[in-house]
Amino acid sequence: MNYPEIELYIGGHWRRASGSPIINPADESVLGTVPHATKADLDDALDAAAKGFAVWRNTAPSTRAQIILRAAALIRERANDMSRAMTLEQGKPLDQARLEILRGCDIIEWDATEGMRLYGRVIPAGPGLQHTVHRQPIGPVAAFSPWNFPMSSPARKVAGALSSGCSIILKASEETPAGALQLVRAFHDAGLPAGVLNLVFGNPAEISSYLVPSPAIRLITFTGSVPIGKHLASMAGQHMKPAIMELGGHGPVIVCGDADPVTTAALSVTAKSRNAGQVCVAPTRFFVQESSFETFAQAFAEGASRLKVGNGLDPSTQLGPLANPRRIEAMERLVSDAAARGARVLAGGQRIGNRGYFYPLTVLAGVPDSALAMNEEPFGPLALVNPVRDLDEAIAKANALPFGLAAYAFTNSADNAQRLSNDVETGNLSINHFVASTAETPFGGVKDSGYGREGGTEGLSCYTVARNVSHKFN
After folding, report:
1. Which of 139, 270, 471, 472 is the most buried (most CB within 10 A)?
2. What is the rounded distance in angstroms from the CA atom of residue 144 to the CA atom of residue 221?
3. How far apart are CA 249 and CA 236, in angstroms?
């Protein structure tokens, strides 16, 4: 089966504990057990992170980079086994799982080398006086990662913290724990000092309420839903802890009349089906100029209907199962509500079978603004396609929700591109493609989609504090 035994990792040592079952979403079988950390385990992790930080912050940046790069190399060597375990626990097709792992390696490697360039500066002053600004690691980090990207999401947090000189306690998903475990194992095997990286699982509310207030923790980073993010941000604020919040989205896609509707629809099918739509930056609300609408909608529906749905271990599968029964329930509720309000179901719309969490890529057209799906993040294979008169209306509709994580647009007009760049309220805008972020670019949201950044120099800066040293001398 190639599914690893899941353990806690605290202070450089692996620990077993009782916990909850891990379910294969393709057939609902039990893969194993994820251990739940006790308060004693969390106390040990906090102590280990404090001691690990004292060592790691005083380790030369070049030495830190060598260890981090060694871990990335080990992950690349183990990518095949890691991708199989990810498909078993999360459902995504094997090729997507492997691409996620390699993308995680790209992030780790970029952060590792950029960590050697966290430069300070000298500020001009008068004779006998010098101001210097130092970028220093903020301290031990409490990180919370989601189930939809079991390896790359934890990798982003671990790489950012470690490359900046911080230690970290990673609370990864209980539903998809293997990606985080195998990530941590690579750092252990690469020779990371004990306590610098710790891994725990358990009841999310209990763990966050224990770690966030701890004096040992100096920064919170969370990827997940808006309601939980607001709760954690409030808790962090009560204890004067800075936070990086990468929260939900409801990605608008603006298709201008000068874009090729058939080509754009084909790209949209691929982007929307990735990870079965369980992506915070997934394209969801498609606003298509009236002249291209029917052609785009028909091409989108035809492409969606051709996708091969099945077990992610099958090399021919293009759309795997949803990760858990909650997503099936959400899809059924949102599609039923939209249809009742007059939306047309152009493709999909019903669960496939009754064993395994399979749901097809569903395309709805003419979805009213009042529909639940137009206001709640579907987080599944659901595309909402509506016509708009012009770019003004498209931008207004794109900005109408409180989300602002990622947005997309297709146009061959420089004027349109400039307007979109200025007026769409989002942290990440991609024009004529569907890649929301890369290792070297900052990623994060505006409005209810969060604050702080992951990736790029801006992301590493979030793990540091700027200290000014003013020195008067004779």
Report:
1. 139
2. 6
3. 22
Alpha-carbon gap, residue 398 to 416, rounded angstroms:
15
One of 3.30.70.260, 2.40.10.10, 3.40.309.10, 3.30.420.40 is the CATH number of 251-439, namely 3.40.309.10
Instruction: Tell me the C-alpha distance between 237 and 32, whole Å.
Output: 37
Judge contact between 151 and 100, C-beta under 8 A: yes
pLDDT at residue number 2: 86
CA dihedral 144, 145, 147, 151 (to 10 degrees): -150
Domain ranges of the chain: 8-247+448-472, 251-439
Tell me which residue has tokens 């912050």: 57
User: Which pLDDT score is estimated for 1?
Assistant: 59
Beta-ladder partners of 253: 286, 408
Please report, for residues 74, 240, 319, 321, 426, the alpha-carbon distance to residue 308 in angstroms, rounded to integers and kept in the order given. 33, 49, 6, 11, 33
Q: What pLDDT is recorded for position 194?
A: 98
Assess contact for 437 and 455: CB atoms under 8 A. yes
pLDDT tens-digit map of 129-160: 999 999 999 999 999 999 999 999 999 999 99
**What is the radius of gyration, based on Cα positions, of the chain?**
23
**Which residues of the chain are under the pLDDT cut of 70?**
1
pTM, two decimals, is 0.96
User: Domain 8-247+448-472: which topology?
Assistant: Aldehyde Dehydrogenase; Chain A, domain 1 (3.40.605)
- Both tokens of residue 434? 């569907």
Positions annotated as catalytic residues are 246, 280
pLDDT of residue 431: 98
